[in-house]
Amino acid sequence: MASYASFHFMIFIFIIIPFCALAQSDGIVRVQSILTANEESNQWLSPKGDFAFGFKLLQDTDQFLLSIWYHNIPDKTVVWYANSGNPVPRGSTVQLTAQTGLVLRDPQGIDLWRTNGISSQVDYGFMNDTGNFILKGSSGSSLLWESFKFPTDTILPLQEFVTGTSVLNSRQSNTSFYKGRFFLQFEENGNLLLTASTVNESGTVDEIEYYNSNNSDPTSTSNSGYRLIFESRGIISILKRNNQTQQLGSSSNLPPASENYFRATLDFDGVFTQYYHPRNFTANQKWTVLWYEPDDICAKSISNKGRGACGYNSICNLVMNGRPVCECPDGYTFLDPDDKYGSCMPNSTQSCAEVKQGSAGDLYDFVVLNATDWPHFDYHFQTPSTEASCRQACLQDCLCAVSIFRDNSCWKKKLPLSNGWASPTLTTTAFLKFRRSDAPPVYPSPKGSRPKDRETLILVGSVILGSSLFINILLTVVFCLCTDLIYKKKKPGFHPNSEANLHCFAYKELVVATKGFSEELGRGSFGIVYKGELKQSSKNVGIAVKKLDRNSQDTEKEFRAEVNTIGQTNHKNLVHLLGFCDEGQNRLLVYEYMSNGTLASFLFNSPMPNWKLRTQIAMEIARGLVYLHEECSTQIIHCDIKPQNILLDEYYHARISDFGLAKLLVLNQSRTLTNIRGTKGYVAPEWFRNTQVTAKVDVYSFGVLLLEIICCRRNVEDIEIGEGDFAILTDLVWDCFQERRLDALVENDLEALNEKMMLERFVMVGIWCIQEDSSIRPTMRKASQMLEGVIEVMVPPCPSFSS
């Protein structure tokens, strides 16, 4: 009898085990099942293997996206993603639990995302062949949660939506799954809308409508739409309350559903597109467009509220299948080289002060763009006008960036330019102003400078060539002796970089300007800075003269670095180097004078500066560093970012100064080996490891500086908190962030306390910047964009390896 029972038990085991395995491979996911993010990670497949749920490795990164994707095609197209599109690091997990459903955790076990709204115990999960991941309750019939109810940027066949829901949100770019700025909404009145969010000049966010299905009927609600349906055969339509339907797109060329996959995606560029892909495909087949809305996003997204389909100062062009392409006009480059749909910045600046000193025609010229327009936001309109007068009016107006001529009328516009687009249907001509490459220098050359010497030498040479042989020989000898004497006496011992448009001051000239170096502004390791004045036209211009210590062994090196580095820069958030003196033992640098001193004296003295001004200064420093790292012809690493090296002009705008330790990197070089540079408390960890350093050392220093700006206290305080220990601001900030005590960082600062979201964003950016692992730190461009709220800031990890 026992033998008989054992036999049946073994039969049961051999039957049940394969059945359980089959159930798992048949789309069912058991409670406590877990997936780990790595290249070899398994997925939860749908019964036919059409769809997979799991971690997808993102292109060119070591991060993973918890998502659902088409599994049986080479493209592996993602149709749904969790955690607001935030990727997670290797080693993260997702687990199906009975109490909360799906739980996403980072490698340290911290919860990042979960399926909220679970009302009862989960029995199992199921990956459907429709692309819908569902959670079933313990009764077996109750549906607790489904991915179809929480769409991202894509809808699939058998997916439905009712009015009053925000259906889709575009991703940020083709490779970034962060939320973008385009939305597909199904209004209560039955209209399906495409909208774009845009930040206007006042900093507020506006919604721009650029497509409307027009399904509402104010005279009869029964004629209005109330449900959006994606049928299994591929037709997308709006069902009205009277049971009539209005189809979106066209079904005339709709391929059979039995042979094709379908999807409709709000693409990152704002175009809502329906695609199909053969189930049985050849190697080179991809998704094919069936239809798209709107028909011309460049024209339909134009609004008087924001920037349009592309960024500021850019031009939108329509290409195949309604896709917009954003281009920077001549004389402009993308603000973010990685964002080809973002804003463009001018390669040079325009100055009203410059125009007063010379002819505008010598300084500026125009790029003529036919069939191109930047509608709205003109500040001056003139009619009647001619092309020539429209062009001339912009040339003579130092505020004008572009003039638009159309129908014998002229519109003048300032920067930034918005809603730029080009179309063969336009009858406009745009005159886009740019600085001539051979524009004369802003400041006149001082007397006795080398250009005049060259003219003298050329004249002497001409006389020599026109004389007799004997006289030629005699004059040649005299000429050589004179040339040698002249250059020994007057020629500086140092030639600045050819790109540096700098003055060579005589030492006596600077002695007079500084009244014998009588008024000291500050001093550092390389020398002392004195206040002075130079006479320029009918007014005196304030200058700051840095007199380098002749006894310092690094004086010559520091002098050359500063002249060559800052002399070739031009940005509103960098201090301007006007010139230098290199006579005998005298090494001096001449800067414009900053009337409000250093950021250090501004931050760390009473009374506390207001929050708005502090945040403005932080963002301006970030922009200055973006320029040094990415927008110069030669990348510049400052190497000594600290409050003492940030100066404030008369309007409290930040200017980065003191480039004596700066390191220049040639084109395509991203790392450098060098000795430790910088100041204690602001030096990145990689300096001490004798490894190659990158521009990320400036990011680290900026992170420390940003936290100082937030808290108005130094990174290392002279307050002992224990035996041999001192209060370190970066440690304090991390502790307060972890414990959700950010209020403690800005005590008694009511303005900052009232801006808690901004305060948290700035603190998180600071923590990202001070990460010990330099590869985790953002670039300065990304840090700047995070500060300005352009891109989302993820929760940062602990900045120290040892913590």
Automatic annotation (TrEMBL):
<dbReference type="InterPro" id="IPR008271">
    <property type="entry name" value="Ser/Thr_kinase_AS"/>
</dbReference>
<keyword id="KW-0245">EGF-like domain</keyword>
<feature type="binding site">
    <location>
        <position position="547"/>
    </location>
    <ligand>
        <name>ATP</name>
    </ligand>
</feature>
<dbReference type="InterPro" id="IPR036426">
    <property type="entry name" value="Bulb-type_lectin_dom_sf"/>
</dbReference>
<keyword id="KW-0808">Transferase</keyword>
<dbReference type="InterPro" id="IPR001480">
    <property type="entry name" value="Bulb-type_lectin_dom"/>
</dbReference>
<keyword id="KW-0732">Signal</keyword>
<comment type="similarity">
    <text>Belongs to the protein kinase superfamily. Ser/Thr protein kinase family.</text>
</comment>
<feature type="domain" description="Protein kinase">
    <location>
        <begin position="515"/>
        <end position="791"/>
    </location>
</feature>
<dbReference type="InterPro" id="IPR011009">
    <property type="entry name" value="Kinase-like_dom_sf"/>
</dbReference>
<keyword id="KW-0547">Nucleotide-binding</keyword>
<feature type="transmembrane region" description="Helical">
    <location>
        <begin position="457"/>
        <end position="482"/>
    </location>
</feature>
<keyword id="KW-0325">Glycoprotein</keyword>
<keyword id="KW-0812">Transmembrane</keyword>
<keyword id="KW-1133">Transmembrane helix</keyword>
<dbReference type="GO" id="GO:0030246">
    <property type="term" value="F:carbohydrate binding"/>
</dbReference>
<dbReference type="GO" id="GO:0016020">
    <property type="term" value="C:membrane"/>
</dbReference>
<keyword id="KW-0472">Membrane</keyword>
<keyword id="KW-0723">Serine/threonine-protein kinase</keyword>
<dbReference type="InterPro" id="IPR024171">
    <property type="entry name" value="SRK-like_kinase"/>
</dbReference>
<dbReference type="GO" id="GO:0005524">
    <property type="term" value="F:ATP binding"/>
</dbReference>
<protein>
    <recommendedName>
        <fullName>Receptor-like serine/threonine-protein kinase</fullName>
        <ecNumber>2.7.11.1</ecNumber>
    </recommendedName>
</protein>
<keyword id="KW-0675">Receptor</keyword>
<keyword id="KW-0418">Kinase</keyword>
<dbReference type="Pfam" id="PF01453">
    <property type="entry name" value="B_lectin"/>
</dbReference>
<keyword id="KW-0067">ATP-binding</keyword>
<feature type="domain" description="Bulb-type lectin">
    <location>
        <begin position="30"/>
        <end position="148"/>
    </location>
</feature>
<keyword id="KW-0430">Lectin</keyword>
<dbReference type="GO" id="GO:0004674">
    <property type="term" value="F:protein serine/threonine kinase activity"/>
</dbReference>
<feature type="signal peptide">
    <location>
        <begin position="1"/>
        <end position="23"/>
    </location>
</feature>
<dbReference type="InterPro" id="IPR000719">
    <property type="entry name" value="Prot_kinase_dom"/>
</dbReference>
<keyword id="KW-1015">Disulfide bond</keyword>
<dbReference type="InterPro" id="IPR051343">
    <property type="entry name" value="G-type_lectin_kinases/EP1-like"/>
</dbReference>
<dbReference type="Pfam" id="PF00069">
    <property type="entry name" value="Pkinase"/>
</dbReference>
<dbReference type="InterPro" id="IPR017441">
    <property type="entry name" value="Protein_kinase_ATP_BS"/>
</dbReference>
